[in-house]
Amino acid sequence: MKRYILRRTLISIATLMVILFILFMLLQLLPGSPFNDEKLSMEQRQILAAKYGLDRPPLVQFFNYLKNMLSGDFGVSYNISKNVPVAELLKSRLVLSAELGLWAILIGTIVGFVFGTIAAFNQNTIWDTFSTILSVVGVSVPSYVFALGLSYYFGFKLMWFPILFDATNKQLSMVMPAISLSLFTMASIARFTRTEMVEVLQSDYIMLAESKGVSGARLLFKHVLRNASIPILTVLAPLVVGLMTGSLVVEKIFSVPGIGQLLVNAIQSNDYNIILAIAFIYSALFIFVMFVVDILYGILDPRIRLVKGE
C-alpha cells in the first residue's frame, strides 16, 4: 500500500506541474496585456511590463513564477486590486466558496444516497418512482433555476432566509445557495446509488448471504455498500471539486463574494496572476480529490492494487 500511495503522489505532483506549465503558456496567447488602459502610452506600458517582469522570455517568467509560488507568493493583482497580493484577495473568497461547496456536497451526497438506497431496496414502488423523478429533474434543470425559485419563495414570499448574502448572518445566507448547488449532486448520487445497488442485490453472493439469514443493516453495510461504492465514488469525485470551487451563476444570484466571480473578472481584465492562482487551486483540488479516490479504491477493493502492480 505504501508503494501504491508513493507512486500516486509522484504522478499527481508531476501532473500538477504540467498543468501549471500549459496554463502559463496559454496565458501568453491571450490578446492584449494586463496594461490595456488607453490612457497609458507605449513607454508607460513597457515600464510596467519591466517592473513586473513581463518583458522577459516566457520560460524565464514561468520558472520565476514557479519559484515564488512554491514559497507561497502568487504575485500581485495587476488590475482588479492593483498591487494587492493575490493570496490576500483569494483568502476570504476561497474559504467562502469552499464552505458553500462543502455544505452542498454534504446535503447532496447524504440525501441522494438515502433516496438511492430506498429506491434500490423498494424496486417498482412509489419510492422508486419518486427517486427516479428526483434524479431526472435534478439532472435536467439547471441549478440557477432552482436558485431563482428558492429565492422567490423562501426568500421573498416567506422571508425565511436572506435573498442576498449577508456577512453578518452567514449561516442562514448559505442555506439557499447550498441547496441550489446540491440538487445536481443529489440527483446524480441517487441515480447511481440505485443502479449500482440493484445490480449488487441481484448478484450471486448477495443471494447467498440472504440465504444464510443476513439482512437489514448488516446486509447493506457489509455486502451491498462496499461493492457499490466504487462507481459512486467515481461519480462524486469531480462533483466535489466543482462544488468546492463555487458556481458562478448561483454565487451571482445570491451575491455570494466567492471565487467564481473573481475568476471571470480576472479573465476579462487579463489579470494573469489571479487567473493562474485560481486555475492552480482548482487543478490541485481536482488532483487531490482523485488521489484520495484512488487510495479509497485500493482500500475498498484490494484487487485494484494488485492489478496496478503491488
Described by the principal axes of the CA atoms, the overall outline is flat
Question: Pairing-aware structural class of the strands and helices?
Answer: mainly alpha
What is the arithmetic mean of pLDDT?
Answer: 77
Strand tally is 0
Rounded to the nearest angstrom, the distance between the terminal CA atoms is: 7 Å
DSSP summary: helix tally: 13
Approximate strand percentage: under 5%
Helix content: over 70%
Unreliable residue runs = 306-310
Largest sheet properties: none
User: Please, what is the oligomeric state?
Assistant: single chain
Rounded radius of gyration (Å): 24 Å
Question: What's this, in brief?
Answer:
This protein is mainly α and 310 residues long.
